[in-house]
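Materials and Methods. Structural model of Cytochrome C. The 472-residue sequence of Cytochrome C from Geobacter soli was retrieved and submitted for structure prediction as follows.
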Amino acid sequence: MKKKVLMSVSLAAVVLTGAMVGAAVPPPPANQFLGIYDTKFPNLTKADCLECHVSDTVLVQQHHALINTVTPPASCINTSGTVPPTLATGCHVMVSDGSGGFTFQDFRNCFNCHTQSPHHTSAAAVAKDCKFCHGNFIDNPLDGHYIPTYGASSVTPLPDGRTVPAPDGGTAIVQGCEACHQAAPNAIDPKTNTVRPIFSNQDTHHGTGITDCNLCHNTSSNVPIRQCEVCHGVNSLHNIQKDSPNAANLGTVKPGLEDRGWGHIGNNWDCQGCHWSWFGNSSPFTDATVPAINGQSSYTVTAGKEAVLTIVGSSFVNVGPDGVTTYQPTVTLVSGSTNLTLTPFSVTESEVKVSVPALVEGVYELRIAKANKVSNLAKLTVTPARIIASATLAAGKTLTITGTGFGPAPSTEYDAGIGVYAGTTEASIISWSDTKVVATSPDFATNGYVTVKTINGALSGKILAAPKKVKR
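The predicted structure was written out as tokens:
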């Protein structure tokens, strides 16, 4: 039985530099605008990971912020010999530099540690809390959501669908998942405008790393789609829609009035993708459509400072099927005992801007909420404030640097790239704390510059002479 995780269901092509790329309208295959690309973990590259996780710099900050989330706190160096390394064993593996010393194994390769999907081995995934990450794009298999019990009819979707004449000529698959979700080896990713294969329902589901085969393969019902509805129920599927480039509706999602091929509920033809005999302009289950945080889903701000966060995605605002009710988003931030609901000061269908209060450092769960619908999970990393307040040089070329966010001291056993530098020359460390570093080097000079390389990045400051003592 074929079933698709519908985190990737926006269906129309996009026009870039005058050329049509991606899937046809109507599909198949579904274009990859909402949520996770239709791929499988063994096929991912680092570039694929960075579509959500942005950059090495953002990932470094996010991983370092996780150090204190385990008990006891994780150490930097993996001394256990465990492969792959984990937070519990220590992350960085040391290798010989050929001269009797040691240096870090390349840690810019995601797959050194993540040899299988880190997403489906999380505590939430093991507990089958799929909505924790996927939001209302999916249903939890154990939450008791509505699954029809009546027999199959012309309105009942089929896992594979069936072939009928298409309105534009030729044939089309209707009444099933494969009306939109099919493999396309030479598909063009509309987010990056690069060739990237779309995988079949079988491949994507088997590629998740989920080992409970009964979630999909259970023959207790004689209506095959009922097992798919264990995760993809009517209430989640009937609220997935992206704004189409329709001048009359541009800027908000209007169920029943969007161009066909941009979601599940935009046009009667979309309805027929699942229900061949369905005729109407909107779904009876539709209210707030599911908001989607797209592409960049890792954000960073500095601890102790207010900030403005710009979140990009789709379906952040929609008009209900009554044509009057408008559903507006809020932003939620959760970390430990902190649970904030923030009202954006600027909202479009594809962008939310919100003022974030000063937060303590750590990793926060970030979501967009809209009425009773919640987006997929994103992460906000609040990094420590890193400031050089002063760098004063005393006789003997001893430099005292004060500030915040210097982090842990460099090791005396290996070169981790952490330290104090006068130009390219590494200074000798006398003492190191999060707020004060004392180092010495013959290359320090008044009105020159010092660089402090910390676990969260480098800082530079101007060197000033220590004030002369006044004799009394």
